[in-house]
Structure of O-antigen ligase-related domain-containing protein:
Amino acid sequence: MNFTFERYLKWMTTGALFLTPFVPLFISTSLFFPFITGKAFLFRILVELSFGSWLILALWKPEYRPQKSGLFVILSAFVGFIALSDIMGGHFLKSFWSNFERMEGLVTLLHLLFYFYVLSSFLKTDKIWSYLLNTTILASLFSAGRGFLQLFGLFQSIQSGARIDGTFGNASYMAVYMLFHIFIAAYLLFREETKKVMKWFYGFVILFESFVLFFTQTRGAILALVGGAFLSALLIAIFEKDRKGIKKVAAWFAGGLLLLVALFFLLKDTSAVQSVPPLKRIASISLTERTTSSRFLIWDMAWQGFKEKPLFGWGQENFIFIFEKYYNPGMWNQEPWFDRAHNIFFDWLSAGGIFGLLSYLSIYLFAFAGLYKTERLSVVSKSLFASLLVGYFIHNFFVFDNIGSYLMFILVLSFIHFKTKPEGVRKPAKPLAFREFLTPVAVVMTIFFLYFFNVKSILSASTLLRALSPQEEGVTKNLEYYKKALSYDTYGNQEIREQLLSASSAIINRDVSQELKENFIQFSLDEMQKQVDSNPQSARHQVFMGSFLNRLKLYDRAIPYLEKALELSPRKQPIYFEFITNYLASGNLEKAIDFSRRAYELAPDFDDARIIYAVTLIYGNNFNEAGALLKEKYGEETIADERLASAYFEAGEREKAILSWQKLVAAVPENIQYRTSLAAAYLSGDFREEAILEIQKAIEINPDFKNQGEFFIREIKAGRNP
């Protein structure tokens, strides 16, 4: 190989590897899901460049070829098992590509595996690994700094509210990223060769990033940090033989940490704890707490899915089908759709079956074995990395991975692999046959992958964001962007179509030309039908289509989609609600009452289902049954609910309608719609003075209502009902 060409390849590989730690900092505001897609595309591009250049080096230079280890084999086997599961899952393209929201799938697993191959084969000295670990520490400080400034309002925490989310847009993602770097900084701090000034620096990193992690308010990560810190101190206190000072400090630290935990539990209900948001969140952990109880329900769904396909699972990105099929009505107080089990182990169990989960767990086992056997790490270093893996394990018991945690996990595994091999020792290897032929193939394949995995998808995500943004040319331009985004025909089609459907629902009542409305709506119907046809076993798509047709008052056309959705997800209440909307609007009270009863019986503690059932009973003149249903929960037949108030009014129950509207006005006195509805209820009972009084109060609240309100008053005084 030409020396200059080899040097360029080395620089390209090194450059890409040392740029990769900065991936978590990248926020692409020009792409849909800016905190996710930009990072994933950048990661893929850097891996493709580093892998392609390393592959050519490995073809010509034996010293760059992989050295096998348990980790090398099990990681390759894990990706192989998951690939097989994806192929057998029945939705291979979805499993391969994932979507814009997650950017995972087999394509990301393959890139992570290639990243491991390059890291573990190309970086061959402690010195260069030290440079790389310091580089990722530096990158983490930028993210932590942004998070710290969010506490003071200098950067907005977009998705996580009051919780720090740094450059991730998600507090949980930020927390696990900090977790990795706290332990890596601790490893660098306690190396014997680390200079004193750098020890102060690493100490600062540990304290600062622990503070940031704490204010992400991510309970799993906080528990992981505390548990990992305790375990590392305990291991050092037990097994360290040479460094007596560190051994003693570790013992005191472990004891102090136990004391602090015990003190926290004693004081968890006091104002001192409850006034600190992160501590309050930790103190709220219980088996009956809303988030915790929902986790148990969704884990049970994952278990049911595993029992149906125990060997190879459902494939990646297919948890939504398990969620729909085995939906537990007790999830009514959670978000409507889950595409993850929120537990990495149940996620891999459902996606990859028993082979997928066992191979994933074996990654940890081989990592622990490598740490135990290697003589190139001190007891302190082994304890820190083992505890990091345990902490990561704890964190993943409550959430799922993301590109930031995946990247750090592979980095740590690659470092452990490196430390299990004697530095600089390689067995002689023979030259590879056909390397002259394979080199240009590798170049061409690298260029092809750069385009195939990235270009069209980037264009699609960018165009979708334009479609969602206000355009100077008006809604017509938005429609053009939707069409252009779909023309790329990428794995983002589902998300584009769902956003298109949402936009079409909003445009129904917009002040635009009828022709534009019809064009927008017809295009949405055509595209959503394509989505339904592409995956007819998705209840989500069926109910979206049925709901949209309901909004268009195409009730007969909506029913087949809703029936299919109910067949696929027979216990999901929102599907029943769409049936109820349909049957109430089309005048089929008997079916509306039947569906509302069935929805209520699925989860009697679901207030919305109870009220909707009562509303349909009222429309059906079943007043006693409706009253008993409401009294059972609320102690009375009238409550502050607009649906009930309207139902009583339309059913001619004036007294109950008046009482309901009065309670709504008392609850939200500034709402003039409630006051005018109360005035109408008064008027229906010929309480004209009371009606006038409510309209006058509405005018006082909103002077813009004056002309219309005074017209109503004149009409009422004239003896008419406006």
